[in-house]
Amino acid sequence: MAWRIGRAVALCRAKNEIDLVAETIIDASGGPAMAKLLFKGKIVAVERKTIKGHVYGEVVIRGSEETEFAGSSLKIPFKNENLVATRLSDAGEEIVVATVPDLICVCDSANGEAIGTPEYKYGLLVTVLGITGSDKWTAIPRGIEIGGPRAFGLDLDYIPLGVFTNPRSVIDEYWNQNAV
């Protein structure tokens, strides 16, 4: 799947269609049943600290005015990786939109590049995507026990973002047997 996502971003750049990168990544990840646009906006706050080799912190993203996310924020606490995405309305309502073991991916809206937690910085325009976690994590209780929200000290139950489907093998799709 990493190859497919990288290819999707590269194709958007080549066609000068970065504004379509979220939709293209969603399609490359298996479509809307498996991946979703969670948020678009600007990073307005970042806190981080390193404890025993782990980077802990939180990023807050304010919704872009020209999008459906205007007037709301997204809060993402992290421990090396993003743990939960919670949408906050101006009225104070909190809605959890994704948790581990599903992937919460923050991308630079200007170029489609993935942004790791150490690269979060104030003012960066970002797109946040959720991608359904592998069934190796979600299909059995032990997977949720060691990779779900409670494993990271969060008082949340795991609610699947979508339905996992195995991606088609890149080799099966692109290998040309006649070329060998």
Mean pLDDT: 93
Beta percentage is: 25-35%
Number of helices: 5
Share of helix, binned: 10-25%
Q: Can you tell me the CATH architecture?
A: Beta Barrel
Number of domains: 1
Low-confidence stretches: none
Number of strands: 8
Per CATH, what is the topology? Answer: CV3147-like
How does the helix and strand content classify structurally? alpha+beta
**Quick one: overall form?**
globular
The N- and C-terminal alpha carbons lie at a distance of 25 Å
Biggest sheet layout = 8 strands, antiparallel
Rounded Rg: 17 Å
CATH class: Mainly Beta
Organism: Fistulina hepatica ATCC 64428
Pfam families: S-Me-THD_C
Protein name: S-Me-THD-like C-terminal domain-containing protein
Domain S-Me-THD-like C-terminal: 2-161
Give your account of this protein's structure.
It is a single chain. The protein is of the alpha+beta class and 180 residues long. The protein has a single domain (32-166), classed as CV3147-like (Beta Barrel). Helix content is 21%, strand content 34%. Strands 1, 2, 3, 4, 5, 6, 7 and 8 form an eight-stranded antiparallel sheet that branches. Helix 1 (2-14) packs antiparallel against helix 2. The radius of gyration is 17 Å and the shape is globular. It holds the Pfam family S-Me-THD_C. InterPro entries: S-Me-THD-like_C, S-Me-THD_C_sf. Residues 2-161 form the S-Me-THD-like C-terminal domain.
Write the layout of secondary structure elements.
Layout: H1 2-14, H2 21-28, E1 35-51, E2 54-63, E3 72-79, E4 81-82, E5 84-89, E6 94-99, E7 103-108, E8 125-131, H3 135-138, H4 141-147, H5 170-174
Antiparallel strand pairs: 1-2, 1-8, 2-3, 3-4, 3-5, 5-6, 7-8
Helix pairs in contact: 1-2
